[in-house]
């Protein structure tokens, strides 16, 4: 089995070389034009600051936890062991880099006083946002597939109650904007659910899970229609043949119909989930620090909108492109079977 192509037969190597050259010339011209445009703007580019938004070395204060006196300071290599003894003979020992030591033996200290600093590598704002986006997208895709599969099967069910429930869900979700649904999940349903949980002293649900619910339910409605179309595209005779061999409808659907339908629905499913990865940027409106919200916070503190928004776009492109390549890999594996 080979994929269909619109290539015109008879076109030679020179034809392909000409149009490939035309493509690369256009690409380089676009990049050069964009670069020239950026140079015309009265703006100081600071790309050297960008790595700090992924990982940076922070100075952390080492503070005392008790009130007392520095009873001893012992140097061990590049660090010093500082022993703080309290009035009731309670003592704590702190390891402090010697070059950052701020106290001497015999000094009196109070709770929260800084006795030194240490350097520690910490995760930057954009990397945290990227990980949140990955987490939300991955969980939403899993739940979206499960919900869409069940709803798609209910959509073509002979049971009127299941069929009408599925149609109602699909039309309600697809007929309203995702941003409105996010607001409803967080400000309405979230408030009601957390109020009820707090009434019975049950831990509240974090905002991230309301974001996951809104994305999964939104994607599930579209996946349901993709699944329905994929199942109905399989020849009806496949089910009749399976039933004639004594298979139940469940096993025929599981082993005969769904494997064939999955090959056909994989490309539109990939497109739907790529859109969902980008739609996750809307979750910043409900206090979820995803990649877009983290970029907005970074821009507000650094006043570097050009570099950070370009970087944000590239990171989303990397996510969606990687997912697209993974789906293409699955398609090739399924064709080879």
From TrEMBL:
Function: Part of the binding-protein-dependent transport system for glutamine; probably responsible for the translocation of the substrate across the membrane.
Source species of the chain: Maridesulfovibrio ferrireducens
Homology family: Belongs to the binding-protein-dependent transport system permease family. HisMQ subfamily.
ABC transmembrane type-1 domain residues: 130-327
Keyword set, alphabetical order: Amino-acid transport, Cell membrane, Membrane, Transmembrane, Transmembrane helix, Transport
Coiled coil: none
Record field: transmembrane: 17-36, 130-154, 208-227, 308-330
GO molecular function: transmembrane transporter activity
GO biological process: amino acid transport
Localization, UniProt: Cell inner membrane; Cell membrane
SUPFAM superfamilies tied to this protein: MetI-like
Membrane topology category: Multi-pass membrane protein
Name recorded for this polypeptide: Putative glutamine transport system permease protein GlnP
UniProt cross-references to Pfam families, sorted A to Z: BPD_transp_1
Secretion signal span: none
Entry's Gene Ontology cellular component terms: ATP-binding cassette (ABC) transporter complex
Classification via InterPro entries: AA_ABC_transptr_permease_3TM (IPR010065), ArtM/GltK/GlnP/TcyL/YhdX-like (IPR043429), MetI-like (IPR000515), MetI-like_sf (IPR035906)
Entry-linked PANTHER family: GLUTAMINE TRANSPORT SYSTEM PERMEASE PROTEIN GLNP, MEMBRANE COMPONENT OF AMINO ACID ABC TRANSPORTER
Tree of life domain: Bacteria
């Amino acid at each position: 089995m080979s994929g269909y192509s619109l290539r015109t037969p008879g076109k030679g190597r020179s034809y392909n070389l000409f149009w490939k050259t035309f493509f690369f010339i256009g690409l380089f011209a676009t990049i050069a034009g964009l670069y020239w445009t950026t140079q015309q703007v009265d703006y100081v580019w600071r790309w050297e600051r960008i790595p700090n938004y992924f990982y940076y070395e922070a100075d952390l204060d080492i503070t005392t936890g008790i009130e007392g006196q520095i009873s001893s300071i012992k140097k061990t290599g590049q660090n010093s062991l500082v022993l703080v003894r309290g009035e009731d003979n309670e003592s704590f020992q702190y390891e402090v880099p010697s070059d950052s030591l701020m106290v001497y033996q015999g000094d009196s200290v109070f709770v929260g006083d800084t006795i030194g600093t240490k350097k520690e590598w910490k995760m930057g704002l954009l990397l945290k946002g990227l990980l949140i986006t990955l987490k939300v997208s991955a969980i939403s895709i899993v739940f979206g597939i499960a919900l869409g599969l069940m709803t798609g099967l209910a959509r073509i069910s002979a049971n009127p109650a299941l069929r009408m429930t599925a149609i109602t869900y699909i039309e309600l979700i697809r007929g309203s904007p995702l941003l409105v649904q996010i607001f409803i999940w967080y400000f309405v349903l979230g408030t009601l659910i957390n109020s009820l949980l707090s009434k019975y002293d049950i831990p509240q649900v974090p905002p991230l899970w309301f974001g996951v619910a809104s994305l999964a339910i939104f994607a599930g409605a579209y996946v349901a229609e993709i699944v329905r179309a994929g199942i109905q595209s399989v020849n009806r005779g496949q089910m009749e043949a399976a039933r004639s061999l004594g298979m139940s409808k469940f096993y025929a659907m599981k082993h005969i119909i769904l494997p064939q339908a999955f090959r056909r629905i994989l490309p539109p499913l990939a497109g739907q989930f790529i859109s969902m990865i980008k739609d996750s940027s809307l979750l910043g409106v409900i206090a979820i620090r995803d990649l877009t919200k983290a970029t907005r916070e970074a821009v507000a503190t650094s006043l570097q909108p050009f570099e950070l928004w370009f970087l944000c776009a590239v990171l989303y492109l990397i996510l969606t492109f990687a997912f697209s390549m993974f789906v293409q890999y699955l398609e090739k594996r399924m064709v080879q079977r």
